[in-house]
Amino acid sequence: MEYKDPVFYTPADNRVIDLAVMRDGELRSAVYNEPLGQVRLRYPGAEIGEWEPIAKAHEESFRHPPQEITEERYHTMLEILPPVGWIQRDGESTFKLAERTSGNITAIFAWVGGRYYEMSDSIYMSHDEIIARVRPGTRQG
Question: What pLDDT, on a 0 to 100 scale, did the predictor assign at position 4?
Answer without folding.
Answer: 87
